[in-house]
């Protein structure tokens, strides 16, 4: 019974990992930042942070849709990467209970309380 539980749950987790990775690989275009329409102008601003600085470039109106799709691709990438990390962390904690152990509680004096 235990083998069956571990086998099937392990397969589901592996399937989840593969599904997330497959979705990550399918993302073909990515771009960081955001797009803002400039008031009274025919072009847009594409703003990103690079090396601690705000970088702005102008984008023609006919290229904005493709840029927005690329920005959405990056958002999806970050979301999927977070899901993958969460799944790996859950698996790590399940395999090694000492990794998931909570830190020792402290008393009012600042010293760890013995359990």
Quick take:
The protein is an alpha+beta fold.
Describe the overall structure.
By secondary structure, the chain is α+β, with helices and mostly antiparallel strands. The chain has one domain. About 50% of the residues lie in helices and about 15% in strands. The chain has 2 helices and 3 strands. It has helices spanning about 1-25, 65-95, and strands at about 35, 45-50, 55-60. Strands 1-2-3 form a 3-stranded antiparallel sheet, covered by helices on one side. A hairpin with a 5-residue loop joins strand 1 and strand 2 (about 45-50). Helix 1 (about 1-25) runs antiparallel to helix 2 (about 65-95). The radius of gyration is 23 Å and the shape is elongated. The two termini are about 35 Å apart. Residues about 1-10 have low confidence and may be disordered.
Secondary-structure blueprint:
Blueprint: H1 2-25, E1 34-37, E2 43-50, E3 53-60, H2 64-95
Helix pairs in contact: 1-2
- What spatial order of strands do you see in the largest sheet? 1-2-3
Helix count, per DSSP? 2
On the 0 to 100 scale, the average pLDDT is: 83
Structural class: alpha+beta
Most strands sheet? 3 strands, antiparallel
E-strand count? 3
Distance between the amino and carboxyl termini: 35 Å
Q: What gross morphology would you assign?
A: elongated
Helix content: 40-55%
Rg from Cα: 23 Å
Number of domains: 1
Poorly predicted sequence stretches spanning 5 or more consecutive residues = 1-11
What string, H for helix and E for strand, traces the elements in order? HEEEH
Strand content: 15-25%
